[in-house]
């Protein structure tokens, strides 16, 4: 019932929020005929850049739309078909302020001016003004001397008023220019100057009066005044349809009061201008490129006229998401369900608005391809956020555990073991190039197990140095004599298949009575009661895997190992616990126990991937067997000693996961027959989504660098991405960090410092994971199994820096891009600022890698202590 109330509340919030933002705004009506429109008749798909010109019927149709709405139009060139505009305009009772386009091409300029005079002095004689050049001084296509010569030349050959069109500040900067014109043709475009909408009309009128004071003897005609309906912001100026309508309706009222002659910029949207003016350039028209009016001239203005449709779409998508998220939520508390509903409504609203904003843009094939890629990326991010939100809710707001295992107390364990079944356990220890003293400690711990039925098989595969494996062999022989023939040692070289090959070799030599195969890594020191507590679980015939978490005994040895230890905790004490709820744990190759008959039935340890443990677990699930995860440590290994080894370990895990995803895609997606449940499919796919996200994020980072370079090279053609596109990765980054902190602080009971350490370590692996997932998904070649070295010498500082070389370079490039954008383009645009925040957030994982790598070389004491469960044995 509370979930129903939450749904109802969020529905009201969406509708109320849209309604509040879109309250009708009363503005002065625009119901009078205005002095003029700036007129470019290019249709959608036409462009002077590509030499695709409008046809006579296109121009005539456009003029018919303006008939009765304006007294005149202002043109920009007389070349080609544009010289026919005055004759066409006459039929609609429209006068013309005829323009000539001037450029650095002096020969073309002479032809243009010759045609200008010819058209102006030919029937039907409806040219009321001549405009020689448009912003030619602003663009620096011509200098002042050249421009005044052209003006004098035209004025000498006509009695029609002559001027050149320039922004207001160009006139003030070049007062002598006014001596060569009959009137001032002025552009007043407060948007380009970053003036806030509410101040824009006053700014325009005050600027007009400033020009009157500066040039009292010259009439002033505002040949461009307007506001864009879409595109990037500049300082306080925001482009939107509502702002365009408000500005024009306010300005027209004031201009009529002040008796100002003006031409609204412009009649029709010109998408081709986006190539030279950025995203704003194509959106200045009162009509869009399909000749549809953007707003009602005399009705209240609504920011998003389609807001009811958007609200309804957001609610429908949110309800669908909610249904999927709550389809199996019987163990969630009401607070957890409310959290998921909240996320569903936020994300659905963002998705719908991003799609809506996409429809407001003008697109080329290239921009469509880029936009579709960005939209797919946004949707992908939201899918990952929803899966992470689901894990967050199930880890934090559960009412009970479905598959909670209650282990017997110490005294009860002995009694239960004596009365119950005591399966024979064959413990396999694969080893390769392991320090002998470390492996001997591992074997000594196994010798102390207080369980009656077990054996230990050590397989040293391919170690070349006899001084490494001979001491272990001798110690095994000694333990074998002491324990009653329980320890066996095999040195095999050559042996293919890496760790899986060694485990299969051990399986072939396992005692015939063994019912359970257990695996531990060569650095693990198990606790004496490991088998006593966990072996009885195999009395249940449905259980094929019993898994205990990996844990570590050297997490307090250094600051580096402290942050690594903190990061490991998240998976083993949060992720694995929630996966166990749906019998979907990740089997990892140490502290694991497998029913031997099942292991042999599914084909033993696989050699097709480098994560043979996880792949085996998935094969076992595909056959319908069950696993149980005990969230209690029974053994402690060693953390990698260097950042290089830490990255290699995670690279192997991520690469292997992608190999498994490729190999078992049919079963995971339901295309191939298996006994996987929906919950198991969900956890295996969604559990690897964050790693896939790191791969996609790496591609995004590289594209962001390229795009930033294009912005710096050509700021007009390449603007910062739309604000919403920038907001999404920032929100995603913030969501991940918040989730991690919350779960560590609340569920793991860690301190703030520990949560910081876990965050730092997790971020530092993003690049390694990203590379691994991309390689595993799209390259697919098998890479060698890379052993994670233990008890290695500490890295020197220079080696530590080199270990994070790629990450350091990327961080440097991203932060340099931020600096260059600031100094070259500034943060006048909200989009520029948001994009720089994206670049900074993208750089943080790479900075974290550099910091963690330096920590691996530092001889300082640990920053994280026993508060999260580091144990010594």
From TrEMBL:
Keyword field contains Transmembrane helix: yes
PROSITE patterns: GLYCOSYL_HYDROL_F17
Source organism, top-level taxon: Bacteria
Primary subcellular site in the record, as a coarse category: membrane
Membrane topology category: Multi-pass membrane protein
Any Pfam family matching the protein: Glyco_hydro_17
Entry keyword annotation includes Glycosyltransferase: yes
InterPro entries: GH, Glyco_hydro_17, Glyco_trans_2-like, Glycosyltr_2/OpgH_subfam, Nucleotide-diphossugar_trans
Keywords linked to the UniProt accession: Glycosyltransferase, Hydrolase, Membrane, Transferase, Transmembrane, Transmembrane helix
Entries under CDD domains matching the protein: CESA_NdvC_like
Chain ranges passing through the membrane: 307-327, 339-356, 362-386, 688-710, 716-738, 750-769, 809-827, 834-855
Subcellular location: Membrane
Position of the signal peptide: none
Glycosyltransferase 2-like domain span: 517-710
Protein name, UniProt field: Glycosyltransferase
Lineage, opening ranks: Bacteria, Pseudomonadati, Pseudomonadota, Betaproteobacteria, Burkholderiales
């Amino acid at each position: 019932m509370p979930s129903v109330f939450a749904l109802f509340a969020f529905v009201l919030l969406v509708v109320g929020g849209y309604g509040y933002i879109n309250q009708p705004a009363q503005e002065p009506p625009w119901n009078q005929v205005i002095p003029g429109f700036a007129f470019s008749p290019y249709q959608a798909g036409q462009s002077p850049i590509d030499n695709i010109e409008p046809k006579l019927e296109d121009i005539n149709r456009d003029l018919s739309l303006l008939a009765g709405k304006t007294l005149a139009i202002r043109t920009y060139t007389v070349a080609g078909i544009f010289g026919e505009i005055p004759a066409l305009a006459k039929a609609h009772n429209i006068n013309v302020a005829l323009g000539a386009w001037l450029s650095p091409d002096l020969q073309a300029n002479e032809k243009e001016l010759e045609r200008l005079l010819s058209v102006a002095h030919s029937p039907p004689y409806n040219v009321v003004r001549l405009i020689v050049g448009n912003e030619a001084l602003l663009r620096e296509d011509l200098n002042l001397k050249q421009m005044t010569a052209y003006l004098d030349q035209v004025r000498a050959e006509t009695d029609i008023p002559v001027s050149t069109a320039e922004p207001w500040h160009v006139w003030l900067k070049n007062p002598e220019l006014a001596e060569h014109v009959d009137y001032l043709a002025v552009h007043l475009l407060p948007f380009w100057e970053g003036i806030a909408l509410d101040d824009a009309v006053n700014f325009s009128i005050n600027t007009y009066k400033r020009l009157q004071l500066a040039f009292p003897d010259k009439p002033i005609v505002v040949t461009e005044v307007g506001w864009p309906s879409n595109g990037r912001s500049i300082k306080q100026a925001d482009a939107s349809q509502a702002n365009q309508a408000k500005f024009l309706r306010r300005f027209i009222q004031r201009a009529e009061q002040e008796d100002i002659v003006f031409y609204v910029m412009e009649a029709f949207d010109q998408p081709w201008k986006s190539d030279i003016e950025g995203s704003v350039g194509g959106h200045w028209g009162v009509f869009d490129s399909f000749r549809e009016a953007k707003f009602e001239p005399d009705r209240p203005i609504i920011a998003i006229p389609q807001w009811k449709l958007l609200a309804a779409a957001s609610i429908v998508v949110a309800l669908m998401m909610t249904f999927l998220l709550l389809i199996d939520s019987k163990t969630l508390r009401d607070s957890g369900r409310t959290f998921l509903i909240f996320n569903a409504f936020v994300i659905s609203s963002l998705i719908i608005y991003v799609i809506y904003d996409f429809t407001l843009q003008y697109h080329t094939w290239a921009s469509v391809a880029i936009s579709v890629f960005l939209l797919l990326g946004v949707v992908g991010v939201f899918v990952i956020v929803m899966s992470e939100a689901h894990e967050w809710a199930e880890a934090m707001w559960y009412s009970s555990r479905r598959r909670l295992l209650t282990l017997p107390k110490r005294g009860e364990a002995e009694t239960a073991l004596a009365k119950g079944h005591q399966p024979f356990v064959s413990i396999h220890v694969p080893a390769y190039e392991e320090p002998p003293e470390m492996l001997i400690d591992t074997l000594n711990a196994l010798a102390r197990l207080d369980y009656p039925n077990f054996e230990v098989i050590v397989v040293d595969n391919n170690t070349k140095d006899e001084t490494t494996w001979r001491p272990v062999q001798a110690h095994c022989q000694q333990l074998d004599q002491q324990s009653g023939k329980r320890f066996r040692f095999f040195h095999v070289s050559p042996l293919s298949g890496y760790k899986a090959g060694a485990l299969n070799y051990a399986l072939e030599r396992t005692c015939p009575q063994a019912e359970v195969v257990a695996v531990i890594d060569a650095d693990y020191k198990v606790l004496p009661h490991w088998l006593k507590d966990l072996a009885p679980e195999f009395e249940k015939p449905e259980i094929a895997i019993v898994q205990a978490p990996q844990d570590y005994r050297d997490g307090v040895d250094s600051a580096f190992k402290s942050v690594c230890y903190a990061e490991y905790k998240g998976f083993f004490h949060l992720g694995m616990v929630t996966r166990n709820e749906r019998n979907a744990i990740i089997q990892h190759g140490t502290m694991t126990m497998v029913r031997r008959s099942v292991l042999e039935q599914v084909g033993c340890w696989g050699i097709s991937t480098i994560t043979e443990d996880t792949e085996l677990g998935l094969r076992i699930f595909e056959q319908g067997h069950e696993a149980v995860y005990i969230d209690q440590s029974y053994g402690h290994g060693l953390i990698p000693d260097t950042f290089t080894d830490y990255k290699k370990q995670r690279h192997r895990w991520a690469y292997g996961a992608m190999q498994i995803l490729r190999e078992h895609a049919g079963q995971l997606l339901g295309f191939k027959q298996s006994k996987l449940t929906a919950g198991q499919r969900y956890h295996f796919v969604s559990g690897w989504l964050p790693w896939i996200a790191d791969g996609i994020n790496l591609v995004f980072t590289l594209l962001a660098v390229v795009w930033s370079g294009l912005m710096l090279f050509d700021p007009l053609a390449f603007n910062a991405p739309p604000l919403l596109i920038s907001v999404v990765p920032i929100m995603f980054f913030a969501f991940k960090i918040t989730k991690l902190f919350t779960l560590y602080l609340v569920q793991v009971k860690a301190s703030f410092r520990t949560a910081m350490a876990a965050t730092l370590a997790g971020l530092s692996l993003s690049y390694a994971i990203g590379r691994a997932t991309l390689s595993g998904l799209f390259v697919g070649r098998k890479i060698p199994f890379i052993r994670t070295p233990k008890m290695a010498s500490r890295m020197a500082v220079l080696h530590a820096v080199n270990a994070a070389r790629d990450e350091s370079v990327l961080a440097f490039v991203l932060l340099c891009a931020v600096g260059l954008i600031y100094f070259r383009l500034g943060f006048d645009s909200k989009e520029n600022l948001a994009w720089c925040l994206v670049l900074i957030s993208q750089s943080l994982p790479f900075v974290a890698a550099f910091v963690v790598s330096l920590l691996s070389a530092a001889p300082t004491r640990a920053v994280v202590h026993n508060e999260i469960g580091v144990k010594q044995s």
